[in-house]
Amino acid sequence: MKIIKRILPMLLILMLSITGCSQTSDEKEKDESKTKKVTDVLGREVEIPSESDSIVALGAGALRMVCYMQGTDKVVGVENLESEIAISRPYSYVYPDLAKLPVVGEGGSNGSTAYQEEIIKAEPDVIITAYDKDMAEDLTEKTGIPVVTVSYNGIFDKNMDKSFELIGEVIGKQDRAKELITYMDELEKDLDDRTKDIDDKDKPTVYTGAVSFRGEHGFEGTYGKYPPFEAINAKNVVDQTKKEGALLVDLEKVSTWDPDIIFLNPQNMKLVNKDYKKNPDFYNSLSAVKNKKVYSQPSYNWYTTNVEIAISDAYYAGSIIYPEQFKDVNVEEKADEIYQKFLGKKLYSDFEKEGLGFGSITIGE
């Protein structure tokens, strides 16, 4: 009996110990199931909630991609830049209620400054940013909230695919990410297939002017490796400079190139027309002007690329440069298809009402 009395407490302690270990293990597994790890576009491994009910998106293009991903219902704070609603930044036009949310950062040309205290007050589960590594890690450290970085450059950038997948993981929209990636792959292939076999000697030369970057520019504002032209394998005269991205060129250089076709941003025609009054001989000497080969190319850059505008621009430019290859495309309907896929709304008529539709341009009017 004495032996049994001694053994019983020991067995009880052992059973309690085993039970305690089992509970601890279960609780650990339960805690782990509440989070998951993702690798962002900078290669950072970030632990995020398995399900996120609230987010903020900071930096160039971050909120736009959340809108493309149909995740606006989870946004609890925006940058100050988003208070301005404009058709030329279509996601702001389609989702105007975003402008009413608490401001948690600066954004825009003033820089992507995060308002850390305001972010903490908004209590997002995850912060989605287009920040660099140091900025992202500093923001996590100061807010205690996981930061996932996204980014893209131009139209058909594989970083955008990765960014869509990341946002899908954060907000539970993995199927939407696949849908967008598949659609963009189809558009990229379609544009390339229509034009890739055309010999360079059979292509007209082209120029795009009045491009907006860090503000408005006149005819001299242009672009090397211009994404809509790149997508359709166009012969951009500016590529002779070997420069890539937005730049200013001398008008004399354009005169030397004398492009066959010119595309201009209708938003900046006031600057072009003002310069025309000062220098009509230059403009009237250009073959594209004499042959009435000047067309609109609505600007797509505002807080980085509005992808839906840029791809629509590519289809319109293709229809002008290669009419035979694009004869089956109604560019207005194609633009609406693209707007609807990205933002859920046909917008071409809205662009037209604002003077941002496709069509011929007469310089000087």
From TrEMBL:
Alphabetical UniProt keywords: Signal
Name the record gives this protein: Fe/B12 periplasmic-binding domain-containing protein
Pfam families, per database record: Peripla_BP_2 (PF01497)
Signal peptide feature range: 1-24
UniProt domain Fe/B12 periplasmic-binding: residue ranges: 54-325
Family matches, as PROSITE patterns: FE_B12_PBP (PS50983), PROKAR_LIPOPROTEIN (PS51257)
PANTHER family: MOLYBDATE-BINDING PROTEIN MOLA (PTHR30535:SF34), VITAMIN B12-BINDING PROTEIN (PTHR30535)
InterPro entries for this protein: ABC_Transporter_SBP, ABC_transptr_periplasmic_BD
Superkingdom of the source species: Bacteria
Family recorded in the similarity comment: Belongs to the bacterial solute-binding protein 8 family.
